[in-house]
Design goal:
By secondary structure, the chain is of the alpha+beta class. The chain folds into three domains: 76 residues, GIY-YIG endonuclease; 131 residues, no CATH class; 89 residues, no CATH class. It contains eleven helices and nine strands. The strands form three sheets. It has a three-stranded antiparallel beta sheet, with no helix packed on it. Strands 5-4-6 form a three-stranded antiparallel beta sheet. It has a three-stranded antiparallel beta sheet with strand order 7-8-9.
Length: 309
């Protein structure tokens, strides 16, 4: 987040290379006057570390809803979707849905940001594991297609298992799925079937996107306060990530005189505690470089008072 002197958010962005992204705003901007006007208002940069770009996209979307800015022209990726895996004998399949309906007999995975990458990922999974043709109630055309694909009703649970393991982000399953799609892409390209190769490449991108770590939302949304403390070159910082209904409601950053001043507030969850620690490590380095803006102490007194009770 880029903030002005009053602490107002004037721009929200995300990047795998934060230093490079921020540096790009301070190069020659003569051909981009709108960015020059924005940069002139920036007083400090407030970074927030996430587990992946996908998770950062969720946070970006949330922040833009809470802090609409004149310099952000979109609200991030357009839609939040789910994948519904039905392994039942009647109508097995994998579908993209806008709303999750747990309890309908299927398995639900997600949510994911972006309809198109999620649709591409589902298409890639069904290309490798044609679950739709392993049902008991196929029409004549579908039976012929199943025969040509070498799929029978006895393959249904095996095919569903491959899809399930990939959607659970099991590393071996994800790597194998992507490897097989890459083989299909390369074979199509060698045969000059460029449309098929392009389709496989889109499916690979979609699978990589939905396979990234993403903990900000889920069927059971995270809830709680997760804290960590870090010291660097004489500076000590405590960080609390406050999650409400699966969204990062606030990130408290407190500069401390001594490590013993930190009361160790927060709930216990390995994933979120590790992410809080990563944020604390970064903020301690920034504090040591005197590069933390006023947001670093805005919530400190209130947080410390609440922690002591």
């Amino acid at each position: 987040m880029l903030r002005d002197q009053a602490g107002r958010v004037i721009y929200v962005g995300r990047s795998r290379d934060l230093a490079g992204r921020v540096r790009s705003y301070w190069i020659d901007l003569k051909d981009r006057p709108h960015l020059a006007r924005m940069v002139a208002r920036v007083s400090w940069v407030e970074p927030v570390l996430c587990s992946s770009e996908h998770e950062a996209a969720f946070l970006e979307s949330d922040l833009l809803e809470r802090h609409p800015t004149r310099y952000n022209h979109t609200l991030g990726m357009e839609s939040c979707v789910w994948l519904r895996l039905d392994a039942g004998a009647r109508s097995p399949g994998l579908d993209v849905e806008h709303e999750a309906r747990p309890g309908d007999g299927a398995e639900w995975f997600g949510p994911y940001l972006g309809w198109e990458p999620t649709r591409q990922a589902a298409a890639g999974l069904l290309r490798l594991y044609p679950l739709r043709y392993a049902g008991d109630e196929l029409g004549r055309t579908e039976r012929e297609l199943a025969r040509s694909l070498g799929v029978s009703t006895g393959d249904r649970l095996v095919l569903a298992g491959h899809i399930r393991r990939t959607l659970r982000r099991e590393p071996v399953a994800v790597r194998e799925t992507i490897r097989r799609l890459e083989q299909m892409r390369d074979s199509a390209a060698e045969a000059l079937m460029f449309e098929s190769a392009a389709a496989a490449q889109g499916q690979i991108r979609g699978l990589r996107w939905i396979s990234e770590a993403q903990n900000l939302a889920g069927l059971v949304p995270a809830q709680g306060d997760f804290s960590a403390i870090s010291s660097w070159d004489g500076a000590t910082v405590g960080v609390v990530l406050s999650l409400r209904r699966g969204r990062l409601a606030q990130r408290h950053v407190v500069e401390l005189a001594e490590p013993n001043d930190w009361p160790g507030v927060g709930d216990s969850d390995q994933v979120w505690t590790m992410l809080a620690q990563a944020n604390a490590n970064l903020m301690a380095k920034l504090s040591a470089a005197e590069a933390i803006g006023p947001m670093s102490w805005r919530y400190g007194t209130r947080l410390m008072r609440r922690s002591a009770t």
